[in-house]
TrEMBL record:
<feature type="domain" description="Terpene synthase metal-binding">
    <location>
        <begin position="280"/>
        <end position="518"/>
    </location>
</feature>
<dbReference type="InterPro" id="IPR008949">
    <property type="entry name" value="Isoprenoid_synthase_dom_sf"/>
</dbReference>
<protein>
    <submittedName>
        <fullName>Isoprene synthase, chloroplastic isoform X2</fullName>
    </submittedName>
</protein>
<dbReference type="InterPro" id="IPR044814">
    <property type="entry name" value="Terpene_cyclase_plant_C1"/>
</dbReference>
<dbReference type="Pfam" id="PF03936">
    <property type="entry name" value="Terpene_synth_C"/>
</dbReference>
<dbReference type="GO" id="GO:0016102">
    <property type="term" value="P:diterpenoid biosynthetic process"/>
</dbReference>
<dbReference type="InterPro" id="IPR034741">
    <property type="entry name" value="Terpene_cyclase-like_1_C"/>
</dbReference>
<dbReference type="Pfam" id="PF01397">
    <property type="entry name" value="Terpene_synth"/>
</dbReference>
<dbReference type="InterPro" id="IPR001906">
    <property type="entry name" value="Terpene_synth_N"/>
</dbReference>
<dbReference type="GO" id="GO:0000287">
    <property type="term" value="F:magnesium ion binding"/>
</dbReference>
<dbReference type="InterPro" id="IPR008930">
    <property type="entry name" value="Terpenoid_cyclase/PrenylTrfase"/>
</dbReference>
<dbReference type="InterPro" id="IPR050148">
    <property type="entry name" value="Terpene_synthase-like"/>
</dbReference>
<keyword id="KW-0456">Lyase</keyword>
<feature type="domain" description="Terpene synthase N-terminal">
    <location>
        <begin position="48"/>
        <end position="221"/>
    </location>
</feature>
<dbReference type="InterPro" id="IPR005630">
    <property type="entry name" value="Terpene_synthase_metal-bd"/>
</dbReference>
<dbReference type="GO" id="GO:0010333">
    <property type="term" value="F:terpene synthase activity"/>
</dbReference>
<dbReference type="InterPro" id="IPR036965">
    <property type="entry name" value="Terpene_synth_N_sf"/>
</dbReference>
Length: 584
């Protein structure tokens, strides 16, 4: 059982020792409240507590760890013992990353790339294939190396357009397409995106590639480009389709399966612990109107922080994520404006003495948050000697104020202009809120400058993140929100202001998101006030938004794509080979 700074149990379960909330808990949480309209009923979660606790988890961690160490050693021996051509090396690095093994070979990859840039001449390349050129460009930029878009010069004509003759090279086109997502602002390379996509589509229509390649191309064009994908979540697909036959590739594949199974087993344990916590809090049983989405929030957390060392972030993010989902539903759907004003004041004061002004359902929600956040700040203080409570409470209070502003617009039937809407929506997107919590959890050298940027939303990198995170949410959820009568939405504001159709507004937002991505890419290469490890999480957060909302609302509505990923990542382990079969 966790405790908070007051030494009280974080759980609100009535079987625990009396806490601040105990007298309130004796009453029916919904009793004194008449909603201003009938709240919609969200589908119940597809993943119940019974489901979570029935996950088998009978893999022995120790055995898997030993096997992984053994395989890693062998892969390293083989890789070091082979004199690889640049193309084979680049393909191997790409495979390692796509198989979800980057963190195991980080040191090896960095050394290999440093060696590569020291021997290769990237300015005057005329002999390399388009595939190799695009691959080296994408991998180097992703790893923070400066490499100019001029690397593609030999594939362009005198007018600077890509030559028509390269358009039949399927592999080259596919690699060029993936590389185009690493474009920086102002670079003409973005033209490669439209160029390669169009040609890949015609090549598919003409059936001028074999079935396997066609499937690969279809998968890429229909889904997210690799640069925007949560790579560890898609590792399962890559493992399933990986079919290279070199001896080190077989070992690598087996290692990827062992790693996947090992992570699955950790995720299952984490989820079971979270499920007990959430069951003890008991909020979903009391507040029937909210979305109860523990497993969906957890997979979202896995998308942001997949690495083994970030278990604590997954746990914290899942807890605050499920709490803000209820909070958001209170502001968007259930609360009256008067109640919401009082609620926001209580968050601003962070003072339990004021909770008696609130209806019971709000008391319950506030206390659950209050106990959880105080407990978190306590743990961080205990472990790291940093008092982050003032910053965490400010981020909760700012989030509530932004939610309140949206509720005011809605209740007063105001559609704000897009600029005004988006400035508020940066905060209600929750991206800054999540990053503030994350910063205190993962950063060694905390600086005032970063805290200031995070709590004041005044950094160029952060603004790009908030914009993409908000727009991907609105593109995915606005249909249902508009149906429910919610008007706080970028699409509604933009259509109202410009007179454009919904389809055109959506198209415009997609272009805007691409522009913001070009700005994000700059931070892969350039130093900034943010540590590089934090920038990686920031970019993963953006990717997670694309993942959840790529085919509509994968969170609130739980579409089949999210469900399938949840099942594959959390439930089904890979069948492992016996040792002799891999190593002969
Ligand atoms: C957004 O829902 C949503 F998924 C929330 C609040 C869960 C928290 C997400 C993370 C922790 C990443 P919805 O689309 O209703 O949000 P808006 O802001 O549009 O009401
Ligand atoms: Mn909402
Ligand atoms: Mn909302
Ligand atoms: Mn939404
Ligand atoms: Mn909204």
């Amino acid at each position: 059982m966790e405790s908070n700074v007051w030494g009280l149990p974080c759980s609100l379960s009535s079987t625990q020792a009396p806490s601040i909330s105990s007298t309130k808990l004796l009453r029916d949480a919904n009793k004194h409240h008449t909603p201003f309209r009938t709240p919609p009923t969200f589908n119940p979660t597809s993943f119940t507590h019974q489901f979570i606790h029935s996950l088998p988890n009978n893999l022995s961690r120790e055995t898997l760890q030993e096997r992984a160490a053994e395989l890693e050693e062998k892969v390293r021996l083989m890789m070091n013992g082979t004199d690889m051509k640049p193309l084979s090396l680049l393909e191997l690095i790409d495979d390692i990353e796509r198989l979800g093994l980057f963190f195991r070979f980080q040191d090896w990859i960095n050394k290999a790339l440093l060696r590569l840039v020291s021997i290769e001449n990237f300015k005057h390349r005329t002999t390399k294939s388009l595939h190799e050129t695009a691959l080296v460009f994408r991998i180097l930029r992703r790893h923070g190396f400066h490499v100019s878009q001029d690397i593609f010069m030999s594939f362009k004509d005198e007018e600077g357009k890509f030559k028509a003759e390269i358009s039949n090279d399927v592999e080259g086109m596919l690699s060029l397409y993936e590389a185009s997502y690493l474009t920086l602002e102002g670079e003409s390379l973005w033209e490669a995106n439209e160029f390669s996509r169009t040609h890949l589509m015609s090549l598919m229509e003409e059936r001028s590639m074999d079935a396997k390649m066609a499937e690969k191309v279809r998968h890429v064009l229909e889904g997210l480009p690799y640069h925007k994908s949560c790579c560890r979540l898609v590792a399962q697909h890559y493992i399933n389709t990986y079919d290279k036959a070199e001896p080190h590739n077989l070992l690598l594949l087996e290692l990827a399966k062992v790693e996947f199974n090992m992570e699955q087993s950790s995720y299952q344990n984490e989820l079971k612990e979270l499920s007990r916590w959430w069951w003890d809090i008991g909020l979903s049983g009391k507040l029937k109107f909210g979305r109860d989405r523990l497993v969906e929030i957890f997979i979202w957390a896995v998308a942001i922080y997949p690495e083994p060392q970030y278990a604590i972030c997954r746990k914290v993010m899942s807890k605050i994520g499920i709490l803000i989902t209820f909070l958001d539903d209170i502001y968007d759907i259930y609360g009256t404006l008067d109640e919401l004003e009082l609620f926001t004041n209580v968050f601003e004061s962070w003072n339990v003495n004021f909770i008696n002004t609130l209806p019971d359902y709000m008391v319950l929600c506030f206390l659950a948050i209050y106990n959880t956040v105080n407990g978190l700040a306590y743990d961080i203080f205990k472990e790291r000697g940093i008092n982050c409570l003032p910053y965490l409470t400010k981020s909760w209070s700012d989030l509530c104020k932004a939610y309140l502003q949206e509720a005011k617009w809605f209740h007063n039937k105001i559609i704000p202009p897009f600029d005004k809407f988006i400035e508020n929506a940066w905060i209600s997107s929750t991206a800054g809120f999540i990053l503030t919590h994350t910063y205190f959890l993962i950063t060694e050298d905390i600086t005032e400058q970063v805290i200031h940027s995070l709590t004041n939303n005044d950094h160029d990198l952060l603004r790009s993140v908030y914009t993409i995170f908000r727009l991907s949410n609105d593109l995915g959820t606005s249909k249902d929100e508009i149906e429910r009568g919610e008007t706080s939405n970028s699409i509604v504001s933009y259509m109202h202001e410009t007179g454009l159709t919904e389809e055109n507004a959506r198209q415009y937002f997609k272009t805007l998101m691409e522009k913001e991505w070009k700005n994000l890419n700059k931070y892969l290469i350039m130093d900034s006030i943010f540590p590089k490890s934090f920038v990686q999480v920031v970019i993963n957060l953006v990717r997670s938004g694309h993942f959840i909302y790529q085919h509509g609302d994968g969170f609130g509505r739980q579409n089949t794509i999210t469900k399938n990923i949840i099942m594959s990542v959390l439930m089904y382990p890979f069948q492992l080979m016996c040792h002799d079969d891999v190593e002969k």
